[in-house]
Structures are given as C-alpha cells and as structure tokens.
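Encode chain A's predicted structure.
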Amino acid sequence: MYTGRRVVLVLLLVFAAAVTMVAQNSGAMLYATGKVTLNGAAVTQGSSIFTGDRLVTSDSSLVSLNRSGASVVVNSNSAIEYKQSSIEVIEGTARVSTVNGMSAKAGQIAISPQNQSAKFDVARTNDQVTVSSRDGVVAIDDNGHAVVLQPGQQATFSLSDSSSAASSPAGKSTPTSKLLGGGPLYTIAVQPDELPICSNLETCIRPSVSQIRPCRCKP
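Encoded structure for chain A:
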C-alpha cells in the first residue's frame, strides 16, 4: 500500500513539473490591478495567459505579463492578444522588454528587436500606430517597408495607408500633423508603486531575466 502511494505521489510530481514546463514555454504569468478580463472573464491573481488568449484592461487598470526572457506591461483601456513569442496590440498601449527576441504586432505593423534584446513601446489608437524604442535597436516591418529605430527614436504609422508618418528622437517634435504636440504621445505607467501586488514573495524580491519586475511587494 505504501509503495503504491509513493508511486502515485511521484506521478503527481512529474505531472505538475510537466504542466509548469508547458506554462513556462508557451504561456506567461499574469499580474493585474483594477478591472481586467481574460477571454471575457474577470482576471484573478496568479492567472496564466496562453497563446490565443485575449486580454482587456479598463480605466485605472494595469497588467504585467512575465515569462522567461520577456515582460509586457499593458496599460489601461487596452486590448492585446497573446501569442507564443509575441503579442498583438489590438487597442491601447503596451511595453515590451525582452532579451530573447519577443516581438509585437499592431495591424500590419510588425515590431521586433534587431539583436534579441530591447525595450520598446507600442501604442495603437484608431488608425495610427506609434512605436518607441526605449533601449536597443528595434526593427519595424510596415507591410514590406523596413524602418529601424535607434534607442530614443519613435515612428508613427497609418494603418489605413501603411505609410510611416514620422521618426524623431524622443522628446523632440517633428513638424507633422500626425504627431501630438506638447508632450508624449501616450503614457505607460511602470513605476514600482503602480504595478500589481505580487502573489508570492519570491516573485516580489526577484525580477525576471528581462529586469522588469512584473509586480510589487505588499506594502
């Protein structure tokens, strides 16, 4: 009887390890604050997101996704679809930080790190997409038209005609009706006190390999 129980215990441990490995390879841990839905259902702390899942945030809500080699912060009033090695920004804004080449897409605009490692923002509003490189060189494929952003540069694209509207160093405006004057085009909250509270102490004290903490410690 004792041997049988031990065998069952070993099998359960193996199964749990296999599930964890699958989640790490194809999914990400999700940390949320405020009203957030995943495939139409309210998100709870400790949830996971997998390929094909759709995430939607509302007013004053924030989500961070954390997986091996990459983190994604999704701002309020945004919607994304999670993919195996990328995200698709359907609406709103998201920040990607990666050391393993995680990419993003918004309409026909495809964004990826040129050398695996980069931090970049993607904002999609109506028929426009703005991409900003925070760190690292970012390559953009605009339906066959290539654009390369150096750190501190941004570019705005029109989804209707798939043309690049502007590219300029961060903090400097370019005279074009496609850009908003008087400040940044959008804001993504990533200050430590604005992140969701971690569900466990280990995640709280140890950032991911992307060096962006997915959540904050309990006050």
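The chain has two helices and 17 strands.
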